[in-house]
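Q: I'm building a small set of examples for a reading group on sequence design. Run inverse folding on the following structure and report the sequence directly after it, with nothing in between.
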């Protein structure tokens, strides 16, 4: 099954590209919002806001994930997202449609957490995408994974509203498609789809 999700950054967005080409200390990733980044933050957010009835090993490092599942008892989150040495890459894939946007460069001051102060020479430049930029994400879900994990995937998008992407950008999420037109939804699924039918923080 395929469906589309809209993700809008509420604050300036930078997914770093790991290079200083172009004069910015923190340049935008060439893909701006890579599918792997979205998948990674979805996994992290749902592990922190796990709904009742689901399991998560809450591990991030590949070796720790493998260790957590060495007995063959795989958590729901890893079934959905995949994990090292898994037979495949999980239950879904993402395609991100990046809009034409103007990039900006801003200067920031590094603040040290322990002292809450800056030091001389701690200025840095960062490339950003301005707030309220909307990204369309096409989700390709493997029906063989079943309804329970589809619900967990939708819960992941819900939880992303309370998490961050890239360098601490807040985002909002809504479904572009009504999934209940495509499949028969039980009451729980209807409630999830209804929650995702509009942006939480407003248009």
């Amino acid at each position: 099954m395929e469906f589309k999700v809209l993700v809008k950054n509420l604050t300036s967005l930078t997914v770093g590209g790991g290079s200083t080409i172009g004069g910015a200390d923190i340049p935008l990733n060439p893909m701006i919002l890579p599918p792997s980044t979205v998948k990674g933050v979805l996994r992290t957010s749902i592990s922190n806001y796990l709904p009742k009835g689901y399991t998560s090993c809450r591990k991030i490092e590949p070796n720790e994930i493998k260790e957590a599942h060495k007995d063959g008892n795989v958590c729901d989150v890893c079934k959905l997202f995949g994990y090292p040495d898994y037979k495949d890459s999980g239950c879904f894939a993402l395609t991100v449609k990046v809009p034409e946007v103007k990039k900006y460069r801003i200067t920031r001051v590094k603040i040290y957490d322990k002292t809450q102060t800056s030091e001389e020479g701690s200025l840095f430049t960062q490339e950003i995408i301005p707030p309220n930029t909307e990204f369309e994400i096409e989700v390709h879900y493997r029906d063989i994974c079943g309804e329970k994990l589809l619900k967990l995937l939708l819960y992941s998008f819900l939880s992303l509203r309370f998490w961050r992407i890239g360098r601490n950008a807040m985002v909002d999420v809504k479904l572009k498609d009504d999934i209940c037109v495509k499949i028969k939804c039980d009451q729980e699924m209807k409630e999830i789809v209804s929650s995702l039918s509009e942006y939480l923080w407003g248009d």
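The longest helix spans residues 146-160.
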